[in-house]
Automatic annotation (TrEMBL):
Domain Rhodanese: 91-179
InterPro entries: GlpE_sulfurtransferase, Rhodanese-like_dom, Rhodanese-like_dom_sf, ScdA-like_N_sf
Name under which the protein is recorded: Rhodanese-related sulfurtransferase
Species for this entry: Prosthecobacter fusiformis
Pfam families in alphabetical order: Rhodanese
GO MF, one annotated term: transferase activity
Keywords, comma-separated and alphabetical: Transferase
Length: 187
């Protein structure tokens, strides 16, 4: 499966456009430059990469662009497509599948056989599970699960991946019997 070509990042690209094409960009910016992770270092969706770099100690725009792109490639390696996940489930009956969404989302719709990731389950996984066995994590659209899979990898899980596009993509591409939904954010 070939990933679609991403639009080029230019100094005049807005942060909204960056995040749309490179969903892990905010995590990458915060990890290296401490930008975008809290209210004191936040950015506006209409701000351009050039403006962001100028107000953050005149960072080199091309270096920031390269970092976002490199981080994105790293994110891609942590993901498994819905089709490949379905095949892995067929081949690996004991596959551990963890749902990193809220309890309410999990109770509303879930991938059959998955477990809601609770603190207790994480402690059990870290202390008792085979860290070389495959573990797949998923959320609604595939963004939060990237953080969760990085956490598992950081704790020694060599074969942890997250479901690209989350349960939403899985229901579109593999199991249309799973209802799709939107999360309403309260103001």
């Amino acid at each position: 499966m070939t990933a679609p070509a991403l639009p080029p990042l230019l100094p005049e690209t807005t942060l909204s456009q960056v995040l749309q094409s490179y969903p892990g960009a905010q995590r990458a910016l915060f990890a290296r430059y401490h930008i975008g992770g809290c209210s004191s270092c936040a950015f506006s969706p209409t701000e351009t990469l050039a403006q962001l770099c100028a107000r953050n100690e005149n960072l080199d725009v091309q270096e920031v662009i390269s970092h976002i792109q490199d981080s994105h490639q790293g994110d891609v390696t942590l993901q498994i497509s819905p089709a490949d996940f379905a095949e892995l489930r067929r081949e690996t009956p004991e596959l551990k599948v963890l749902d990193v969404r809220t309890r309410e989302e999990h109770e509303a719709v879930t991938i059959p056989g998955s477990l809601l990731m609770t603190q207790e389950l994480v402690q059990e996984a870290f202390s008792a599970w085979d860290k070389n066995a495959p573990v797949i994590l998923y959320d609604h659209t595939g963004s939060r699960s990237l953080d969760a899979v990085a956490y598992f990898i950081g704790h020694g899980f060599t074969n942890a991946r997250c479901l690209a596009g989350g349960i939403h993509a899985y229901s579109l591409e593999v199991d249309p019997s799973l209802p799709r939904y939107k999360v309403e954010i309260e103001a």
